[in-house]
Amino acid sequence: MASRKFNLCHEASFCAENTPVTVVPSFSYKSTLPLMSSQRQSSVGPFVAGMPMEVPLWIAKVLQQRKLAQIQIPDWLSPESLTATLTEERQENMLTDTLPFYYFEIARSLQWAMDSKSTMIVLQDLANVRTDKIRSHFHEMSKGDLEKNEGELPEITITGICSIELNTVGPFLQRAFSDYGYLTKSQKQAAGGDFEGEGNTQGSEGFKRPSSLGSRLLKLRKKALS
Amino acid sequence: MILGMNHWHFGYEQIVQDCRNEDGSVLMLCNADVDAMASARILSYLLRSDGIPYQLYPCTNYQALESYLKTNESVLEEVEAIVMLNFGASKNLTRLFESQLLTQDLKVYVMDCRKPVHLANIYAGENIVVFMDDTTNMEELPSDGDNLSGGESTSDEEGSSEEGEGDGESDEDDDSDMDDSQADEGEEEAGFDDVEGDAPPQPMPQQDPAYDGGNESDHDDEHDNDNDDDDATAAPVDDPEKSKRRSRDDAPEMDPASSPDSTSKRQKLTEDDATAVETDEDDSRRNSQESSNQHEEEFMDPRELHKQRLVKLRQYYSSGSFFGCPSAYVAYRLAAQLRFGDEKDLLWLACVGVTDAYLHARLDLTGFAALSTDLKESIFRLFPNDMYERVSNTVYAEDLLGTTPLEGDESRTRISLSDNGRIIAQNDFRFFLLRQSSLLESMVHSDYISTKFQVWTKKGMQRLQELLAKMGYPLDECKQPFHMMKPSLKRQLQHKLVENGPEYELGNWQFTSFFRITGYQSLLSASDTSYAVTALLECETPTSKAIEDDPLNQQAWDEEKMMVEAFNIAYDALNCNTTPNSANGSGTWNGVLAEGRDTSTLVNGGSLSGSTGLGAGLRMAMTLQKLVINTAVSLVDREAITRLRHFRYAYLNCTSAGENKTARSELVPSNSNKKSAKDEEHKHHVFAKPLALTRLAHFLMDMHRENGKWTGGKSRPLVLLAEKPRTGTYLVVGYEYPERAGTFMRNTFGNNFELTAKSMNGTFRFDSFDSNVVEVNGDDVQRFIEQLHYLMDSI
């Protein structure tokens, strides 16, 4: 289970690097460089020294390390705005949706480029608060959704969830749900019909995480018993 | 070709351009000292940032370098630039890289602190680039022309292979006379024809004024010179030199192709490079001035001018070797002229390199002060520590939480942030490895205190303890590891030393030192780093220990391989990662850190176990220092230092290490159980390494300066002879003795050793990069000393 989380971590960091950030290059390059990886941008450039422009995060990091450009830290990543977000989090019941999906991974990538050392401190606090919220309020959030049980896949909608929380609590929840589904399945089987229960959480931006592992687990279980 | 200080970045840009155009790589050849390693790190960072592949290879002598070049020809085909760090400037590089320069279009770049720079390298055209600091006055350099090797120096090395020795042959460069003259004349002005006078000389802008005049005078001059030589009643010393010159002049072999080449080269110089034009213009301006002044006398006295020039050349080479700017500083300045001036790791490497040069007597006090002032400015720029910064950097927890403090409650929680990676320039004490050991230990083993108090005597130790008591430091506290001492004591140390120092004649016990914060608040000083990495470089490696400990496993002791391994370990230890994504970026995103690879794990010296890494280096440095002190003391006790009229000398055999055998056993692999002669052979003497030997020599000098035995009329240079039992030779190194600590005198032993070697039969190796080092066969060493003495008598 731990290695799975580790892989999720890698995956998230990698995907986060596609986020566009503003960069001020110190060189000029007239033609554009084609990009395969981004859906948003098909190419990067032309570079004009001193003019800010948007590039994917991974390009920005490479340029910064080679001293060819200066990354401009996004607005949401300054200590003040993070502190504001933190206070908001503590007061509200629901998660804020002002943060980008990969906020933690982006911040971790840009850690070395930040001027202020206290950003990471606030960020850690923010991530902790949000994750705690999910863990503690999950029961209430999900009670209503689970009871409905219209189809085979109970959906639990949590607005404002971000990648770091998904990866922190996600695997546990998936496992929990698959167990739940298994336990209720036997009930349902008794009541008629065969189905697989899966847990699925959905982010607010329409990002769907297929919990294929959860379903695989369930299948294994079924096999073992039958 | 020379690059002045402001133009160093042109050299680097040239490398980048060449490699990008031709898809080539860079070969970095690095001398085995910390300064060179630091500059190698800086340069490799630059190259990595620009995406240029490079290779790094350590060298300790020219022989090894040549064999490396020969065996790796396939590798060398891709190489577009060779960078030599901290060696090579005083050798004729056109000859050394002759085959490479002919077959490929590569360039050689030299960053060397050793001077004097061989004139052939300066006037060689664009293929050899010397990064020159501002200490040499370009006006004083002899102008271009023949005899660029000087009458007496490198050309005579080759010459001595034919002359001088009867039976024994020298292991030096065995160039034949023909090659000699060809190579030289390839660079000569065309004015210097062969004696028969085939091709008329072509007037060139940088020509020596003597040859602006008619052609006839040239030939007459040559003939006259030869006649003069013949007539001269020379001392035996002069004969080899003059006969050498005669033989060169007599072997005309003037390459007609080479003179137009050299002309065009020189003309290209004046047109292209802004840098070379500066210096050449200076020369030509001076020449034209001279020539205008002497226009009337030209026809009358070209011989006189020629003689003057020869005298100048001779003076240039024989005034002794000295040191210029350390190469790490050159590399950092170069980086700062490019876009890397804000990179903190590079600044730290420069600090380590400069401190290392100072500690190993390659930099005198004034030079070190100048360079450290410059580095301090950079430090203040990158790490501003003024009030404003400190205020703006304080972080309070309440601010971060967004909570307002309670009414009436003024206290706020201050969060202390790690200052990891910060560089500080402070006055520090001259104590050895203070922050990695206890106060008492570091005082006892420092060069400064131990020589002032003569701590190895009982009385000296008592005096030292008296001083500590007067300062109010209990002995127990002084024996605690320094970072565990009471904070109040640590803070007062400086103040107390100022108060009580003068009583014990402790002046000048501070020097500007550089520190880097590792972890939260622990400090790592540049001098400690330098000592540690030097120790890793010079002491045994795990492999060599394995070989030695197993008496059955007597593999061939490949000195070269051992050196490369030690170099690699030391180079890794110099790694100054403060963050995983920093300059030497070896960490991956998940920050997997190995021991000693991240300075934040190096808290208070870090783990001192293990055989690699900075922690191990610190441990070995302490052992090495103890060994140095013990050896020095035992030499004095046994009265093993003999004084002659012109110098003092002492033998360092493997058995002369003194009582502290346990200390030695860590550094020197030895089967301490068996005492057979065979084992003695297989010992590897740590003092046969040049850096350790330099430390010993300077310790001896400090010691005797303090106890007044070597002062005034009794001062002499010091020659140390260290045994290398493996090869049965002795490493003979000569050191000048400056009256005041920290000053520097030009080292003239290079010349003296050469002359001595020429005048006797025996086997010698003048292979080392330092001119004052020679390796002599065990049987010949006694006679060598005698001969050296006679020689210095006759000078």
From TrEMBL, chain A:
Superkingdom is Eukaryota
Q: Report the residue ranges that make up the GINS subunit domain in this protein.
A: 76-169
Q: Where is this region: Disordered?
A: 191-226
What UniProt keywords apply to this chain's record, in alphabetical order? DNA replication, Nucleus
Q: Where in the cell is it found?
A: Nucleus
User: What family does the database annotate?
Assistant: Belongs to the GINS2/PSF2 family.
Please identify the protein, giving its name as recorded: DNA replication complex GINS protein PSF2
Query: Which lineage ranks, top first, belong to the organism behind this chain?
Result: Eukaryota, Sar, Stramenopiles, Ochrophyta, Bacillariophyta
TrEMBL record, chain B:
Q: Where is the composition biased (Basic and acidic residues)?
A: 239-251, 283-303
MF term (GO), any: single-stranded DNA binding
Q: Which UniProt keywords apply?
A: Cell cycle, DNA replication, Nucleus
Locate the compositionally biased regions of type Acidic residues. 154-197, 223-232, 272-282
List the GO cellular component terms.
DNA replication preinitiation complex
Q: Which Pfam families match?
A: CDC45
Q: Tell me, which GO biological process terms does this entry list?
A: DNA replication initiation; double-strand break repair via break-induced replication; mitotic DNA replication preinitiation complex assembly
Is Protease one of the keywords?
Answer: no
Q: Which InterPro entries match?
A: CDC45
Give positions of region: Disordered. 137-303
Q: Where in the cell is it found?
A: Nucleus
Q: Which family does it belong to?
A: Belongs to the CDC45 family.
Q: What is this protein called?
A: Cell division control protein 45
